[in-house]
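Anyone able to model this chain together with NAP?
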Amino acid sequence: MRPPFMKAAYFTELGGPGVIHYGDRPLPGPTPGTVLVRVAASAVNHVDTFVRSGAYATELHFPQVVGRDLVGTAELIGPGAAGRFSPGDAVWSNSMGFDGRPGAAAQSIAVPAERLYVLPAGVDPVQAAAVLHSGATAYLALHRHGQVQPGETVFIGGAGGGVGSAAVSQAVSAGALVVASSSAADLDYCRGLGASAVLDFRSPDFADELRDTVGRVSGGRGVDVHLETSGRHQLDLAVDVLGLRGRIVLMSGMSATATIRLGRLYPHDISIRGFAISNATETDLAEAAETVNKLLADGALAARSITTLPLQDAARAHSAMEAGTVHGKIVLLP
Ligand SMILES: NC(=O)c1ccc[n+]([C@@H]2O[C@H](COP(=O)([O-])OP(=O)(O)OC[C@H]3O[C@@H](n4cnc5c(N)ncnc54)[C@H](OP(=O)(O)O)[C@@H]3O)[C@@H](O)[C@H]2O)c1
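re: yes, here you go
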């Protein structure tokens, strides 16, 4: 007999990390089209703090369980979801906890079958949970929105971080040349991921170094795809070093503002395109999931460091994310 309750980290109003409670919530049933998953690990991402605070407006059903990414085991298969999943399958999802869907930071969750994917055999649930969001984000930013092509030059800012490092590896795999920026401590790590050149973003000569490096790496053509994942933008400089038909995929910096010279934009067919994985369709997510699974199976998508915390520390995890004191990924264990 299953107990009627489960433990979860949930919030009943928008606000700071203190609105997150830990306690009993009714155990969900596998409604039509869903699979009831026993959660083994759920990740804490920046976007979870935006959903909780209201900075990212989305449909929530209070009490709302926090968290978007989870890895676990399929327990019960709802009507309409049979055939695709079987009890005992190792599975994952990276699109829960917003848009009216229940969150991942719980002992169990009913996940729509279209948003659930089988985890490749032998992949550790905690390791996988740590990279689902960054791996899929990097894929969609580079391919779906950036339209990266072999031989192109890609600039990746924040390359030492979760999304940035996944983007460096995937851009290199796509045959692109990568110019990256990171903290001084992360330069070697980024080179190890295959970046052609890495710049310390704190260097007082960063702008000149970027111009010289892009000129050298791209053979004078300029940057084709620009991804700044740090949330700290120098958009005028970014536009300056873009080549003809360069694409800026704007994906971080929730409260940032920028000034750019428009005269650099239209004469060079330059585009700036906003992208948030929250808007990705089920088809986009499934395509990204295929790549994520391949990378996971190959051991080519891994977090640098993971801090595991018990589910009851979800509020503490959100505080640390907002304070910027997290280096690596936090994964919650139910
Ligand atoms: N649009 C989307 O769909 C989407 C999806 C996922 C994430 N995001 C956003 O992308 C951003 C990164 O997420 P994440 O999970 O990768 O975070 P993360 O792991 O914390 O990475 C951020 C990285 O940026 C570095 N950094 C800070 N300031 C920098 C600067 N001025 N230049 C270059 N690097 C700098 C940090 O280095 P230190 O640690 O040394 O400070 C850190 O390595 C967040 O703002 C997140 O909200 C957007």
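The longest helix spans residues 282-298.
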